[in-house]
Amino acid sequence: MTTSLHTIETPAALIDVQRMQRNIEHMQARMDAFGVTFRPHVKTAKCISVTQAQMAAGARGITVSTLKEAEQFFAAGITDILYAVGISIDKLPRALALCQRGCDLKLIVDNVDTAHALDDFGKTFNATFEVWIEIDTDGHRSGIKPDDETLLTIARILQESGMTMGGVMTHAGSSYDYHTPEALRAIAEQERAGAVKAAQRLREAGFSCPVVSVGSTPTALSAEHLKGVTEVRAGVYALFDLVMHNVGVCALDDIALSVITTVIGHQEEKGWAIVDAGWMAMSRDRGTQKQTHDFGFGQVCTEDGTVLEGYILSGANQEHGILSHAGETDHDIRNRFPIGTRLRILPNHACATGAQHPHYAALAHDNSIDIWPRFYGW
Amino acid sequence: MTTSLHTIETPAALIDVQRMQRNIEHMQARMDAFGVTFRPHVKTAKCISVTQAQMAAGARGITVSTLKEAEQFFAAGITDILYAVGISIDKLPRALALCQRGCDLKLIVDNVDTAHALDDFGKTFNATFEVWIEIDTDGHRSGIKPDDETLLTIARILQESGMTMGGVMTHAGSSYDYHTPEALRAIAEQERAGAVKAAQRLREAGFSCPVVSVGSTPTALSAEHLKGVTEVRAGVYALFDLVMHNVGVCALDDIALSVITTVIGHQEEKGWAIVDAGWMAMSRDRGTQKQTHDFGFGQVCTEDGTVLEGYILSGANQEHGILSHAGETDHDIRNRFPIGTRLRILPNHACATGAQHPHYAALAHDNSIDIWPRFYGW
């Protein structure tokens, strides 16, 4: 039996390839218009086929969140890789092995202790790395502030130890917390200005800083200009999700990832249909809980993708989802969604939902289904 | 280099085998004392080694949440398997294939439509299954109420279609919502009484009902007696987690699962240490958020497992965790947890955290580390 949308066993992660392609091309065209290179973050899908589509559209290099991703994508032929999590010293042997096999791997650092440890490692193993300095432009996580003296101290340690000074990078992850165009434009400008300032300080102090790398999906889609920036990174834009919809950077019908599920029971007096997609299929991500519209564990759509407004996955156990109307009790739930009904659920967070699945069912324009493996672990 | 607790690359899921063994033996001894058989739910760890320890301690058969689990554990030599999610018709060919290979697989059903569909499938493929009827004893999810007329209707359909009437099963999942011994004893008694009542109704109507199966970790550990029950199921008890600690059925030092992580940065003015265990390593589960003690994304311990009271993973991005003191800003965070410090984080929810990892590092009494694979997907 040929696999089709109607026969694939549930629960399954589905990628609408047309939507994905549209999202990828839109972002690339925007970056081309800004005159910056684009380095997609491949942690969202961890899937060679998705990344090949990004590269084919014009992406230059990739961003990864684990050395496992670096290894997998390097094996698939991609050499220009930014490992965008502050390097920890125990991971240096593995990073070095990748470099020695020909990978153009760039590491990031945001503190003096790690810079010294890099220096020690380099001396011990006669190794050099290309290192970028991580800048904190919004206080949400890691990095050093653009005007922090530490910036120059780190640069000095790296330069003296013979590391290649690749540039600066920042990620304004707090952009996920906003939902108006004005606020998004402001955080995008803050991200840009902070990274550019850090680069200027490095250059004025005599250090090389060829790359100024910024990005998050909301800021990449909201920036008014990118003066001084050389490259942009973004990840979730390729698939999008309900969190991004609430942020305001995609429509519901831009969301390219969903989970196909089957109705397996009802609790009529409560207005519940029970489906075979629980949190194991959707992830435990409740990212829309604190946003303007809470979609529970996901937005319910028909099997062909039509949004069923008001119907959400209101609860989830490991392999059971509770489907109900967000507003009122639907006492007709059993007739509306009979046993065996197949549905699509749009996820809160594409990165988290994808991570629950060993592969994607990639649905093409002609309704054929291709199986795209994805990997996990570290 | 031999893998040890101090060298295993982070983030990694660690099982303290002594704690696990103690948890398994304690539960089995309790069930033995009640004179009931014990059928562990293997969805928590999805790991052959963990389940072998459960079987060695005296478990009889297993409970699974997916057919993938059934296939994997059957391949490992376990034949008596309860698939404890309402069967959906599209999965029957795969269930039948397992039975034909010699698996003693039991299915569950809680509605007339599925019973009819089972009958149709049976006639078409000349197949019979052992079927248990799912009973709803606490309104938290699936099942039919013990006094619902549908119970006898389903039994009649199954009997007439030649299916083997295995018995009744229930899971009082709402037990997770309580945290006093009195409330837990009450929900355990409600679970027991509901299942026994359903079995009595079936037997009085002339149907066979050999098995009366109940269970959840909190009720299994709280029941005062199990009269009329023939078997108990529980899953998370083998590893435990912070949610179970808040429920009150385990101490912190009973928790056998943790995530090993490394400090990779600081934000001193905020009192943050940044670690390399984000939500990809911990899961997005925030199950303690609405409980008496909110542990954020996890409780921080030293590498050797000593609880560092007050220190939690207060935030998590995909590969970054934010470690801070839950009460006050620790301005000495950089000296307390220098770059490279290795820590253990106890998880909110063992089932969800385990699912993020391809394998466990199993730490034995002699401090040796064994790698125990786990699987995922459907």
TrEMBL record, chains A, B:
Task: List, alphabetically, the InterPro entries matched.
Answer: Ala_racemase_N (IPR001608), D-amino_acid_metab_enzyme (IPR051466), D-ser_dehydrat-like_dom (IPR026956), D-ser_dehydrat-like_sf (IPR042208), PLP-binding_barrel (IPR029066)
At the top level of its lineage, which domain of life is listed? Answer: Bacteria
Pfam families cross-referenced by the UniProt entry: Ala_racemase_N, D-ser_dehydrat
| Biological process terms in GO annotation | D-serine catabolic process
Claim: Metal-binding is one of the keywords in the record: yes
Key words, A-Z: Lyase, Metal-binding, Pyridoxal phosphate, Zinc
Q: Which residues does the UniProt record annotate as the domain D-serine dehydratase-like?
A: 256-364
GO terms (molecular function) for this protein are: D-serine ammonia-lyase activity; metal ion binding
Q: Which cofactor does it need?
A: Zn(2+); pyridoxal 5'-phosphate
Database matches in CDD domains: PLPDE_III_DSD_D-TA_like_1
Q: State the similarity comment.
A: Belongs to the DSD1 family.
Name recorded for this polypeptide = Alanine racemase
